[in-house]
Automatic annotation (TrEMBL):
SMART domains named among the record's database cross-references: CYCc
Species of origin: Rhizobium sp. ZPR3
Domain Cyclic nucleotide-binding residue range list: 35-114
Occurrences of domain Guanylate cyclase (ranges): 187-317
GO biological process, any: intracellular signal transduction
Alphabetical list of CDD domains matching this protein: CAP_ED (cd00038), CHD (cd07302)
Pfam families: cNMP_binding, Guanylate_cyc
Protein name (record): Adenylate/guanylate cyclase domain-containing protein
Keywords from the UniProt entry: Plasmid
Higher taxonomy: Bacteria, Pseudomonadati, Pseudomonadota, Alphaproteobacteria, Hyphomicrobiales
Domain of life: Bacteria
One Gene Ontology MF term: adenylate cyclase activity
Amino acid sequence: MNAHQAISQFLAEFCPSPTSLEAFFLNAARRVLNLRDGQLLCRKGDEADEMWLILKGQVRVEDRGLIAVRSVGEIVGEVAFVRVAPKLRLRGADMVALGELTALRIDASLLEEMDQAQRLVWKDTLLAVLAGKLDQAQGQRADLNSSSSVMRDVMQHFVCAEAFSAAWAAITDQGFSRIDPEVCQAIVWFSDIAGFSSYAADLGPAEVGGIVREIMDVQTAIVASAGGQVDKYMGDGLMCFWRVPDDVRLKRFVPRAVTAALEAGSTLGGLIKERGLPLDVRIGMHIGKVTVGDFGGANRVAFTLIGETVNTASRYEQARTATDGLPLGRVRISDALFEALPDDLRSNFDNSARQIADKHSFTYGVRSSLDRAAVAT
């Protein structure tokens, strides 16, 4: 496409009277600007003393990323140029030649050569250009909002609410930033399907996946209804938590979290018995200080909880028997969590503390639910 065709295309699309301006712009060929690929047409913050009609090539409009690509027959730079106040006539973005660029320079001196009738037509032409770009921007905004909504929905399927809130704030705050860790008090839940590894050894992957998903769905629904959040899925294991940074939330969520564990144990116990499966569920819970935040590498977010409270909750879940040699129930909670329970919930657990030991023979006080049904494998 030559210069004449590019000018004609532009006027045909935006000008209410193309013939009144076509000859004028064709005679302005002396104002043509030529740039190589990658050269700057203007830089963000520059004073806007001209605009350009693209005759050949393309222009990238960018500000910390691509905003738009303008092609032959389009005007660029007109928004800042038409502003009246000098302090507002500043470029809002960089404009860079994309390929070999030829553009017609349109400045105040050129427009002064127009007669009165041509100036009126030119104003209407610019209004049409601006209206078209506004419509385009609104469409892009709608697409962006739609894409943002889809991205939010997808993210919420992969991370807990706590991680999503922190990650979304980091992403939308002028680009990605690290999620700073913080220390707070939390109730930590670990659960595992006891006996699953040996049982699943002879099953196909689809059957294994179906059983795990069903058991996880039961637990996650119960945890969510109790105000908890899933931190991660770990094969046939699950880690959840409740943040309890103050007395109000401590009193609210301790009963809910423990009730959720008892409900999950009972529901899954019934489901497993009904199916005749050689399985059971173990749930270990502890309360204490944790560090919450992003503990991933430079290129990947890994939002989670770490600390001795987390490790201790895991030990309660992993215990097969107490040090007295007797089995533990499905739900095992620490003395600290037991002491925070109201009296009506304490009756679901051992009256007196028992002990479990880790691999280093260090002992921990435990209160076990009374079902005594967990598989010790």
